[in-house]
Amino acid sequence: MTEDRPPTPVAEIARIGHHEAMRLAAEENQRFHSLLQQLSAGDWNRGTDCARWTVRDVAVHVIATAEAQASPREFLRQAVRGRRLTAQIGGQHWVDGLNEAQLQARRDLHAPDIPARWASAADAALRSRRRLPGAIGRLRLLPLGSMAGVDFGWQPLSYLFDIGFTRDVWMHRIDIARATDRPLNPTREHDGRIVEDIIAEWATLHADPFHLRLTGPAGGTFVRADDGSAPLEIDAIDCCRILSGRGTPAGVLEHPLPL
């Protein structure tokens, strides 16, 4: 619960820097691996909150993304193939084609092999992310453009290599846990830091006042220019799901933050 923690002005949220980001990434990678190891044969074909994706598809996407982080050659292979596929599948963003390319190239990855493949890919990706020179990370080389109605334009590599990729794994761990009825077991120290960093960035994308009371172990109370209205109370994980396009937004949560 969050009642005994005072509200935090959103401008005072400490953003996640590189060193903390790498610690969170290592922990998230382990939690994702633990979840994959729990899955039964019947879990892999279950549908998820990601349109058209099964649990297996989500896991394969996360693996492929990690393999691209670890290898510039693999990233280029996915990007080139994905660019061709975007139009073919009626994608709205180049990421749609990239995701499709990831799945197509890994059709032969069998479910029993997925946990071990993730462990190997995650370790290699984390090594690559830790070694990214600061000067390179600051280069605005990522053409994110418009996603879910939000214009991200060009972002520095560190936007993804520090915390963006970890958010992706975290949200997909939530997708798989929900689809398979596995416990998420969020903690304040890990999931709570990811949540408040998401809220801090989300607040930069709109100017509306808000008073969010996010419940659960990952929660907290966050305010900006409180207008005196009743706080919006919602589970912290559900709040992030809604911001990411999963679920039905209402009020200030109609401002998205693609994850």
Q: Could you characterize the architecture of this molecule?
A:
With 259 residues, this protein is of the alpha/beta class. It has a single domain (8-254), classed as Four Helix Bundle (Hemerythrin (Met), subunit A) (Up-down Bundle), CATH 1.20.120.450. The protein has nine helices and six strands. The protein has helices at 18-38, 55-70, 72-88, 94-104, 114-131, 134-137, 157-180, 188-203, 236-243; strands spanning 8-9, 140-147, 150-156, 210-215, 220-224, 232-235. It has a four-stranded mixed beta sheet with strand order 1-5-4-6. The chain has a two-stranded antiparallel sheet with strand order 2-3. A hairpin with a 2-residue loop joins β2 (140-147) and β3 (150-156). The longest helix has 24 residues, at 157-180. The model has no long low-confidence stretch (mean pLDDT 93). It holds the Pfam family MDMPI_N. This is Maleylpyruvate isomerase family mycothiol-dependent enzyme. InterPro entries: DinB/YfiT-like (IPR034660), Maleyloyr_isom (IPR017517), MDMPI_metal-binding (IPR024344). Keywords: Isomerase, Pyruvate.
